[in-house]
Amino acid sequence: MSQASASSIPATSPDHHPDILACHQLEHHITGSGHTLSILKGIDLQLKPGESLAISGASGSGKTTLLGLLAGLDIATGGDIQMFGQALAKLDEEGRAALRRQRVGFVFQSFQLLPTLTALDNVLLPLQLTGVSEAKQKSIAALHSVGLAERLNHYPSQLSGGEQQRVALARAFAGEPALLFADEPTGNLDHASGRHIADLLFDMNARCDTALLLVTHDLNMAERCQRHLRLRDGRLHHPVQQAD
Amino acid sequence: MLALSLRQTQREWRAGPLASVFWALTITLAALTAVNVTSDRAQRALTAKAGELLAADLVLSSRNPISTDIQQNATGLGLDTAQVVSFPSAVFAGEDSLLVSAKAITQGYPLRGQLAVSNDAYEPGSATTALPAAGEVWAESRLLSALNMQVGDSLSVGSEVYRLAKVLTYEPDRTGGFAGLSPRLLLNLADARLAGLLRSQSRATWQLLIAGQPAALERFKNSLNDYPDLRIITPEQAEAQSSNALAQATRFLSLAALCAVLLGAAGMLQAGRRYALAQRQPVALLRCFGLSWSEILRLKLWQLLWLMLAACSAGILLGLLAQMLLAQQLAALLTNQLPGIALRPILETLLIGVLLLSTLCLPRLLQLRRLPSLTILNEVTIQTDRHWLLTYLPAFITLLGLCAWQLDNWRLAMIVLLGVVVLVIALLLVVKLVLWLIQRLHRVSAPEVRLALSGLQRHQQANTLHMTALGLALIALLVLGWIRNDMVAQWQTSLAPDTPNRFLINIQPDQKPALQALLESHDVAKLEFGPMAIARVIRINDVPAAEWRPEANPPGRRDGTVNLSWRADLPASNSLTAGSWFDPNRSTAQISLSADWAEALELTPGDSMTFLSGAQEIRGTITSLRSVEWDSFNINFFILLNPAAAADLDFQWVASFHLSDEAAGMLRTVAQQFPNITIFDAEALVRQIADLLAKLIRALEIVFLFTLAAALVVLVNAVQSGLSERQRETAVLRCLGVKRGILQRSWWLENILLGGLTGLLAVIVAAVCTWRISRDILDISWQLQPWLALAGLAAGLILLPLTTWLVSRRSFNTAPLAALRQHI
Ligand SMILES: Nc1ncnc2c1ncn2[C@@H]1O[C@H](COP(=O)(O)OP(=O)(O)O)[C@@H](O)[C@H]1O
Ligand SMILES: [Mg+2]
């Protein structure tokens, strides 16, 4: 348990690239049936292009909530977030969606493949819809790189969990996004498949020079990121350095 | 975007809901196309005929020669006129003779429409403007075959001999009824006078045909107030009569189509809901990937457009195929060929397709806009059903409009639709109540039974949906089937194999015993005699008859001459609607009127009427009104007296009976022994009507198939929407070690219970509905139908478990893990 840094620590990186994602004093409360639940209580973080940042925490600590806010899928009750230099609070839902277009990728804990589409179509559809050129070649290439070249026309129900998540990885990276949000990408997988997915994720991350925000309760995986912060009691902490 | 949306539609097709929307829409449109195209064709056939139906713009009709003043008056106003006298007569050719319905005409006939003639009995006719010349007659082919004659042969009518010059194949103003039963003989009015045919003719109808400018016609009509004895017939009246059967037929088909449409709409609502639910994940996902709502909406709209194109073309094609069958059946109701298919009803159907899809399915899809993209992360199910008013109001308005348009009656449409809504709500409540009651029975020990009973409770939401959907579908099917059976039963009693098919009139009282003996020796069925006296209504409520409600236009005639009959008991095909039947103990004259006749003259029990028959005057009080089944082919009269009141009247007997084809030769004996008696042969008419009804029933059954198809869509939709929940539960229970056999047995038990309950509910509701519909809308008598009720029950018992099993059988066979994994 980290006592070293009781106050939240700004996750600042040393160089002077403009931040691709940053938040300042981010707070989030949920009011329901008279109670107010404070999930996030003042979060500061910055992410530079190509950088990878892991946020770990116990289940229910608010990781997914934080990721959703940073990705602009929901509006924080306090503080501000900048994505690609734009303040999310100033944008409406349409504006935030437009900001993500072609530049942001997602990997979800529960894969979120469309069950009616084949592996190829699952990768292809967002590219086509967001108007990426040469969508088909890129999709096939992406599926190749996750080792699913043979499974292009299989439906999600015909794939194992690990394979489904590989399709999701292909979908996330095929558009060569500048920023990738990953929420417990190995959470629903057994150990071996989880490792494989993690390998692929970091491998592709390095190759595509994508900034990665990884949210996980798996400390091993979190350690593989360039930086690692822990979310506890609504605040970010540096993790206790583990003696090797 | 176009290609992409098309491709996406193909992709989503596999998932189910989109295909369900397609089928529901297709079936709805097919039913609408079939019925609307058919009734449009029938309607146009009628309108085209309406003007011709009279062979004039206006006809004056009387039992006596029409004053030449009237004709001169018409000519003076610039109107065209022609005279027509119709009367029964006998034709002789060598040894043979035949009763004909003669029509004597003057130059100018017909003023509207054309006659058609041919030179041979078996040739098709061609239109002509000529008329029979002096010394010539034209006759229908039936006369030629009956008398074994050829064109050019001679025949005698009255005191003269005529040459048969042409075969008459069509006359515009040919009507059915008794006048239409014997073959037509057309001749010149001057010739008819010459032959003495019109002297002493008590049964002739004199008509003056008039045609010309509307304004002149109007002025002419106003000048007729001085002649109250004349009956004025307009094309509208003629049309109303002849189109009655067809109107009833098309109204009933519309009603049947409406059942299919409402069920189809229910199917679309369900499928639309499932589709919208299935779209939540992709929409949220696409929002994550940065698509704007308008882009997503555009994609979905394109997809709906493709779907609509496919469903509209399939539906209209299917509908057109079905209307070919329908038109074949309905053509029997019209004498001439049906006109071709018009574009209008097809375009209307297309428009309805667009409307249905955009008000039944689109609102749900639009609500996805409110769906936060965040749902993709934390998988909380967000209730999208909250805005039910927004979801259902457009649907309700569209369906209301559609019902009103289809039934041509806003009030009725509102009643039907609210009825359906109330029905659904009532079903929901009853189902909930029943499920609650079942829960109280919990203390049974067998695990299957316990599981089944608790299953009813656990799946309450899905079960309520299944039962309501199946219940609605069954009710629609039962109502249609029930009404069909009621109609068939009605027709069968009125057109039983021994329906009277021969009528004798003008039987003198002293001839009756001998005639009756002769008829009975020839094994005739349903022989019935009735007395008849000709009388004039001279006063109504002590006011001269002509001054009583002068604007009224009762069925039959109001020129003062009526047929009176009398009997002690109420005729079998009549039923009292007001007052009480004759009191034998009262010596004063009592009158019973047919309800429609009394209604037209605004007469009620207690009013008085005075008749003059021969030299005898009878003043009586109306004591009852009867509803009369005029289509029962029994002898029926508008006016009946109690026997005592008619004791001293001069009268004749009329008789009706059924004669089999083999015994038909005995009529010759009747004609020889009693030459004064007139014989009407209604066999052809009875056959024609029976044939027509059979065709009508077949038409109904075709539309019924659409209703059945729509019902299946609704049911399959309902079952599919609860499927994943059920599969997951099965998987969990199996993981927990519950034996597959127990699961399956409890599953069957639950569904059979559910189906049986639904069947029972549906039968009860259908019985109540048909009871109202039969009485109030279709005017036929309602009967309890135990077989249909049993069939409804059985359908519930079998259909629900079977459909559910067919749709969900895989969930029993997949490994529990696989089932669970699909739903992570
Ligand atoms: N919409 C919501 N309504 C109520 N509570 C919520 C909502 N979203 C998240 N929470 C609560 O906030 C806490 C953090 O949730 P989450 O961010 O999903 O945690 P994690 O991803 O770290 O497991 C949980 O206790 C959760 O129950
Ligand atoms: Mg989480």
Concise structural overview:
The complex is a heterodimer of chains A (244) and B (824). Chain A is of the alpha/beta class and 244 residues long.
Strand and helix layout:
The complex is a heterodimer of chains A (244) and B (824).
Chain A: E1 21-32, E2 35-47, E3 52-56, H1 63-70, E4 78-83, E5 86-87, H2 93-100, E6 104-107, H3 119-129, H4 135-145, H5 161-174, E7 179-183, H6 191-208, E8 211-216, H7 219-223, E9 227-232, E10 235-237
Parallel strand pairs in A: 3-8, 3-9, 6-7, 7-8
Antiparallel strand pairs in A: 1-2, 1-4, 4-5, 9-10
Chain B: H1 2-13, H2 17-50, E1 58-62, H3 68-76, E2 80-93, E3 96-105, E4 115-118, E5 126-128, E6 136-140, H4 141-147, E7 154-157, E8 160-170, E9 184-188, H5 189-194, E10 205-211, H6 214-222, E11 231-233, H7 235-242, H8 244-278, H9 280-288, H10 293-330, H11 343-366, H12 375-378, H13 388-407, H14 410-440, H15 447-458, H16 460-494, E12 502-507, H17 512-521, E13 525-540, E14 543-544, E15 561-566, E16 574-579, E17 589-594, H18 595-600, E18 608-613, E19 616-628, E20 639-641, E21 652-658, H19 666-673, E22 678-681, H20 683-721, H21 723-735, H22 740-778, H23 786-808, H24 810-813, H25 816-821
Parallel strand pairs in B: 3-9, 6-8, 15-20, 17-19
Antiparallel strand pairs in B: 1-10, 1-11, 2-3, 2-7, 2-10, 4-5, 4-8, 6-9, 7-8, 12-21, 12-22, 13-14, 13-15, 13-18, 13-21, 16-19, 17-20, 18-19
Helix pairs in contact in B: 1-10, 2-7, 2-8, 2-10, 2-11, 2-20, 8-11, 8-13, 8-16, 8-20, 10-11, 10-20, 11-13, 13-14, 14-15, 14-16, 15-22, 16-20, 16-22, 16-23, 20-23, 22-23
